[in-house]
Design brief:
The protein has 382 residues and is mainly α. It has 14 helices and no strands.
């Protein structure tokens, strides 16, 4: 369900040139349509609150799946920009409700597993989101290029997948105590995993999605500006490569260690700078190499943030997960919206420079916050 929901959130991105041709969208309006999804996410995260504790993980997840089915139907059936915006907001609502609830439910189900398995689940939690974000544009681009009804078919396919997930969730074991579940006690007793979340994972989550949000919202424009291949399939493959690299990288890089986070930060920095250079000199091959590199680093940073949220005290774990996803989706929307506004007055090769500077500044702030916090935690433990 996580994969299908996040796929729906990025499926429109390679289709934006088709929407622009149909509805007369400017690049600034396109980035606004992309970013409005995050408004729904924020509302969904805020509204979810403790609802899954009160009503049960399974019930809340099924409600999120139903919201996503409705969003897909609106995107497919309601014409014009109004339908696109409404569908994006509804999709964001569903993802917001889903994001923290699914991550908490997965960890509760895996709580009695060995430590190695729990670490793998932690990396997989972030990877599932990244995988869905990558598969959405790939599927949409392929269907738009090779099948009829390019602005409708992909939403029908994803609606069927989400409806199947809604049905399958009936068999999910309930783990919320207030709903009759009995989540396993973490090894070491109820107080185990009592670390505080801190600022570093929030900044790194925001940074990681600020990077992927740029490629998600502007890849068709960037490919055109760099002289790269045109068409929905090329755009979908380019966008998909960013997110799929972000899904794979946490499986091979130790995201729970400082060295892994540093490696992810270096990949983001190099990929971001190289992308700006590619746009400046018109080198599409460099853009197509730099974008997945930045995506891989973003995946490592996001998985690290999600893993940190999983290690906080059990009573604060759901709130920590919500905070990480809220920071991430804020990063997905706000910076790329700023680039979109700049596109009204300057070309993309110029508008990308403030975004690159912001990413580098956030990287430095996140790494510095993590470095400051580590000695304090070691002092507290002594």
């Amino acid at each position: 369900m996580v994969v299908a929901s996040t796929a729906l959130s990025t499926a429109p991105t390679p289709l934006f040139p088709l929407y622009a041709a149909r509805d007369g969208l400017t690049p600034t309006a396109t980035t606004a349509v992309f970013a409005v999804f995050a408004v729904g996410v924020v509302v969904g995260l805020a509204g979810a609150g403790r609802s899954s504790d009160r009503w049960g993980r399974r019930r809340v997840l099924r409600a999120a799946a139903l919201l996503e089915v409705v969003a897909a139907a609106v995107l497919a059936a309601v014409p014009g920009t109004a339908g696109l915006v409404a569908g994006r907001v509804l999709c964001g609502l569903g993802v917001g409700v889903l994001a923290s609830t699914a991550s908490v439910a997965v960890r509760e189900l895996a709580a009695r597993a060995p430590e190695v398995a729990r670490r793998r689940w932690s990396a997989a939690a972030g990877a599932m989101s990244m995988a869905g974000l990558g598969l959405g544009p790939l599927l949409a681009g392929a269907l738009a290029e090779l099948a009829p009804a390019p602005l409708h078919l992909v939403y029908g396919v994803l609606a069927v997948a989400l409806a199947a997930a809604w049905r399958a969730l009936r068999r999910l074991p309930e783990t919320a105590p207030a709903a009759g579940g009995a989540p396993p006690t973490p090894p070491g007793g109820p107080g185990a995993g009592g670390a505080r979340l801190g600022a570093a994972p929030l900044v790194l989550a925001l940074t990681s999605f600020a990077v992927t949000g740029f490629y998600g919202g502007l890849t068709p424009e960037a490919l055109r500006g760099a002289g790269g291949p045109a068409g929905p399939l090329a755009a979908g493959a380019a966008i998909g490569s960013v997110f799929l690299a972000g899904a794979v990288a946490p499986q091979v890089v130790p995201t729970g260690r400082r060295g892994g986070r540093l490696l992810g930060a270096v990949a983001v920095a190099v990929g971001t700078v190289a992308s700006a250079v590619a746009l400046a000199v018109g080198a599409p091959w460099l853009l197509l190499v730099a974008a997945p590199l930045a995506g891989a680093g973003s995946g490592v940073l996001f998985a690290s943030a999600v893993g940190t949220a999983a290690r906080v005290a059990p009573a604060r774990r759901a709130a920590a997960a919500r905070a990480v996803f809220l920071a991430a989706y804020t990063g997905l929307a706000v910076p790329v919206l700023g680039v979109g506004l700049l596109l009204g007055v300057v070309p993309l090769r110029t508008a990308v420079l403030p975004h690159a500077a912001l990413v580098l500044a956030l990287l430095g702030a996140g790494l510095w916050a993590g470095r400051v916090r580590a000695p304090r935690e070691q002092s507290d433990q002594r």
